[in-house]
Specification:
By secondary structure, the chain is of the alpha/beta class. The protein contains 14 helices and 13 strands. It has a domain at about 40-270 and about 345-390: TIM Barrel (Alpha-Beta Barrel). Helix 1 packs antiparallel against helix 14 (about 370-405) and helix 8 crosses helix 9. The longest helix is centred in the C-terminal third of the chain and has 34 residues, at about 370-405.
């Protein structure tokens, strides 16, 4: 039976958590909203600029822009309880900062994770651009630093720098950007890629010390850049055993810079009322992966184009299902084009699987489906509340264990 807001407990205990997980509290979404500010798990979605044309949509980055759809899609994410929405980037897509600013003007709470490729804008100018956006939106900005999946992507915008060098350039770019935010007086900088004299910014980010910097990648260059300059390492969902190893290895790398790094995991939930229905749904989605995938420069490829994709594709070739429900069918069919690893099951089963990663140290989850708008709404109703309440319960139990140990 539904519960009223006045009936929701002020604190979450094991009893309430169990009732939420079992589905006997249909007011679990309201419960999650009340506790949203205190929730430890960050839930990230992704908005596109044009309405999807099919129910098996892989990517939502490119296409002609519909200003109305941008707003409606962002508002659907906010209403569903997403904390943040990614705005993607390709060498032909709409400009992400303007898309995000348009959406932010019509939403109140949700932040925007804007994909950015260093190298096309001077880092000092970009520092002012980011600070301005952060001030205008009340601190609702984060950055996802990318260097371009392929050389062809970069060449479309006139950058012919080899990828290993692009990572080195990005590391210097981020260093100079952060120095611009921090410096109280004009400064000079002489680096390998950038040189400035009397650099200064009148505007500083609202968020301190600066907006969140996320990055992804599996190459040595990506890992070196991220460990030195970024805050969150974004990875695709993979088996828990290798995830554990990967987290430990990158924490050790970051520690050499005296830094502590967080982790974000990207995964495609496929949920239904029963586990069997969820697998039927997964197979229908796979069967629908016959048209355009949504990335113009990669449409004719069905093989990985970067190190992160090759890592995912290797898991897909090893077996179709890892752990209990990590399904790699889409990964194999598309050549690991972007975020393609899926968790399949009921909402409770998928939430439990996500929380297993939370226990490993992943505190941020980028989730999106293959029917973008409908899945956004369904995740808000069935999945996000379970993840948020479950993460809070895990933290409570961890804190209690530490208190008892001391």
């Amino acid at each position: 039976m539904p519960v009223e807001a006045s009936e929701l407990p002020k604190t979450i205990g094991p009893r309430e958590y169990g009732r939420c997980r079992s589905g006997t509290i249909s007011g679990v979404a309201l419960l999650a909203r009340r506790l949203e500010a205190a929730m430890p798990a960050r839930i990230v979605g992704m908005i596109g600029v044009t309405p999807p044309k099919q129910g098996s949509t892989l990517l939502v980055i490119e296409g002609e822009i519909s200003p109305r759809f941008v707003v409606e899609f962002a508002q659907a994410h906010e209403a569903a309880g997403f904390d943040m929405a990614l705005v993607g980037y390709s060498s032909s897509s709409a400009e992400g900062f303007l898309v995000a600013l348009h959406a932010a003007a019509q939403t109140a709470r949700m932040s925007y994770l804007i994909a950015h490729r260093p190298g096309f804008i001077a880092p000092t100018l970009f520092a002012r651009k980011v600070a301005t956006f952060d001030q205008l939106t009340g601190g609702r900005l984060a950055l996802h630093i990318i260097t371009g999946k392929t050389d062809a992507e970069q060449e479309g915008d006139g950058d012919f720098t080899p990828k290993p060098e692009r990572y080195q350039r990005a590391q210097e770019y981020l260093h100079l950007m952060k120095r611009t935010w921090a410096a109280e007086k004009p400064f000079d900088f002489d680096g390998r890629f950038y040189r400035v004299r009397g650099a200064h910014s009148d505007v500083r980010p609202l968020q301190k010390p600066h907006p969140l910097l996320m990055f992804g990648g599996a190459s040595e260059g990506a890992l070196a850049m991220g460990a030195a300059e970024c805050d969150v390492f974004a990875i695709y969902a993979e088996p828990r055993a290798t995830t554990t190893e990967r987290i430990a290895a990158f924490r050790a790398r970051a520690a050499t810079h005296n830094r502590t790094i967080g982790f974000n995991m990207s995964v495609r939930p496929i949920i239904a009322a029963t586990e069997g229905a969820a697998w039927d749904k997964a197979n229908r989605i796979l069967a629908g992966m016959t048209g355009k995938l949504g990335w113009a420069r990669q449409e004719n490829l069905r093989a990985p184009v970067d190190n992160a994709g090759r890592r995912q594709f290797a898991f897909a070739q090893e077996k179709e299902v890892h752990d209990e429900r990590l399904w790699m069918g889409i990964t194999k069919a598309t050549g690991a084009l972007g975020n393609t690893s899926c968790l399949v099951g009921t909402a409770e089963q998928v939430a439990d699987a996500i929380l297993r990663y939370y226990e490993l140290g992943v505190a941020s989850f980028l989730i999106r489906g293959f029917d973008p708008v409908a899945d956004t709404i369904e995740f808000g109703r069935e999945l996000i509340p379970r993840i948020k309440v479950g993460a809070m319960e895990i933290d409570k139990q961890t804190s209690a264990g530490l208190a008892n140990a001391s």
